Amino acid sequence: MTTTAAKFQISPALRNPRRFVLDTNVLMHDPSALFRFQEHDIHLPMMVLEELDHAKKGVSEVARNVRQVSRFLDELIAGASKDAIDLGLQLPGLPGQQGKPSSGRLFFQTRPLRPNPSLQPLPGNTPDHDILGMALSLQQDYPDGRVTLVSKDINLRIKAAILGLHAEDYYSDQTLDDVNLLYSGTWDLPVDFWETHGKELDSWQDSGHTYYRVRGPDVTHWHPNQGLFQIDPPTDFIVRQINGEEAVIEILKDYTAPNHSVWGIVARNREQNFALNLLLDPEIDFVSLLGAAGTGKTLLALAAGLAQTLDSKRYREIIMTRITVPVGEDIGFLPGTEEEKMTPWMGALMDNLEVLAPQEGGEWGRAATADLLSSKIKIRSLNFMRGRTFQNKYLIIDEAQNLTPKQMKTLITRAGPGTKVICLGNIAQIDTPYLSETTSGLTYVVDRFKAWQHGGHVTLRRGERSRLAEFASERL
Q: Which of 26, 115, 119, 193 is deepest in the core (most CB within 10 A)?
């Protein structure tokens, strides 16, 4: 867009919005980005529409997002005259959400770009140059310096900086500003906790469980099913109810003791003990476990699942799934059924089943146990989850850090009555393009579920795989 925007801008003395030029990858990543700039104006180069048109075919997440963007644009432009488009289309608020109405406008590039001396020395004639050219033209039309190029492409932002353009990443999809602010699921009680919170202490027992009602300022920072611990004296609790500055806490069951083992597995540290309490609690429907490699996420989830599927019969079967993102080069198409295709991706499942399966009973006994476990554990692909409903299942979503928030929502909403969902992952090992620690679907659900009465989260910090694995996780 050239001087057209300046010519038709309404009441420039009254409206002085920032102007954002959107790159194609922003809309591919988040179709609702059109509605997230509130009172500011959005400018779309014609090259962005061209790239959207090329990417609309297929069944991938990107193709679905592109088609949604096209539908949004079609609704905005429906019935608008040429003059109305030149004036800028009024942007509504985010669809489906109540909030402050948007006063921003959407502008399309309606005229060819004038030659720009800054772009002439650059080699080639890539689509990036058209987007940069429009941003430079807007900067000349609006010399107040409030033109910003928004892109998730680092190299395009570098080019923009070289040309003197202000460029930013797209931040509206970030759950948190800093991953260090992510909810950990545990709270360290201070030494004087009982002096400051136990003046009106109530305690009682019910069905073998001990409860305390405490009051004090720290309670306002707690969340349901959060783990509380005190080092001296060593005591672990879990938050059961919160009402203002009053909370009901329960003494945790100690799964570090051999007589309380879960399928032969005992908790080796405090966080693992918290995790087993959450995984075995029938009142908790959603559990997320975060941690580095070797912290025991998969082993704990499987042990708890087998105990509740084969022993207590709480669930009919265990379903395990994960996104198939390779670490290195892809090995190509795999033969066989859905389960056979997923088997190479489920090495973690097989490794942990070797630990959980009893070793006694000879070769025949081990073979019978392996058959029993395989009949109760099903491996499913994410590609066929849409439209399904799981009832009385124990659903494990492995490598959840590689899922987008939208994919995570699709999976968790598959849960029917009696189903428990377990999300496992390490946000330091994200292999999906355009996802980061602050935009991962795993970070998203940890933050959204932390205040829910039937959800729980624990961040596992200590590696228990081996001293070699723990040293490698810290130093490499």
A: 26
Superfamily of domain 265-475, CATH level 4: P-loop containing nucleotide triphosphate hydrolases (3.40.50.300)
Q: Are 239 and 224 in contact (CB under 8 A)?
A: yes
pLDDT tens column, 333-367:
555 654 555 555 555 666 677 776 665 555 666 66
> Rounded CA gap, 296 and 308, in Å?
18
Give the distance, in angstroms, between the CA of residue 304 and the centroid of all CA atoms in the same chain. Answer: 24
Quote the pLDDT of residue 418: 94
- Pinpoint the residues of the chain covered by CATH 3.40.50.1010: 4-168
Contacts 24+ apart (CB under 8 A), 158-165: 159/122, 159/128, 159/132, 160/132, 160/135, 163/118, 163/119, 163/132, 163/136, 164/118, 164/139, 165/132, 165/135, 165/136, 165/139
As to burial, measured by CB atoms within 10 angstroms (0-12 exposed, 13-18 middle, 19+ buried), residue 68 is middle
**Residue type (1 letter), 21:** V
| Inter-residue long-range contacts of 386-392, CB under 8 Å, 24+ positions, other chains counted | 386/410, 388/414, 389/414, 389/415, 389/416, 390/319, 390/414, 390/415, 390/416, 390/419, 391/316, 391/416, 391/417, 391/418, 391/419, 392/314, 392/315, 392/316, 392/416, 392/417, 392/418, 392/419
Q: What pTM did the predictor assign?
A: 0.75
Amino acid making up residue 274: F
Task: Enumerate the CATH 3.40.50.300 domain ranges in the chain, comma separated.
Answer: 265-475
Half-sphere exposure of 17 (CA within 13 A, CB side): 23
Neighbours of 46 (CB within 10 A): 17
Q: In angstroms, what CA-CA distances link 355 with 44, 307, 442, 461?
A: 56, 14, 27, 21
Which of 290, 303, 270, 115 shows the shortest CA–CA distance to 187?
A: 270
| 393-398 β-sheet, strand order | 377-381, 317-322, 393-398, 420-425, 286-291, 455-460
Judge if the upstream peptide bond of residue 344 is cis by omega within 30 degrees of 0. Answer: no
Only one residue has tokens 């193709």, namely 63
Tell me the β-bridge partners of 319. Answer: 378, 395
What are the residues whose beta carbons fall under 8 Å from the beta carbon of 319, sequence distance 6 or more? 377, 378, 379, 380, 390, 393, 394, 395, 396
| Alpha-carbon distances of 257 from 222, 262, 268, 270, 296, rounded to whole Å | 27, 10, 9, 12, 17
Q: Which two tokens stand for residue 221?
A: 């920072």
The alpha carbon of residue 430 and the mean position of all alpha carbons in its chain are separated, in whole angstroms, by 11
pLDDT at res. 347: 57
Q: Directed axis angle between helix 297-306 and helix 347-356, to 10°?
A: 60
**In this structure, which topology does domain 4-168 adopt according to CATH?**
Rossmann fold (3.40.50)
Q: In sequence order, what are the residues at sequence separation of 6 or more whose Cβ sits closer than 8 angstroms to the Cβ of residue 94?
A: 32, 35, 36
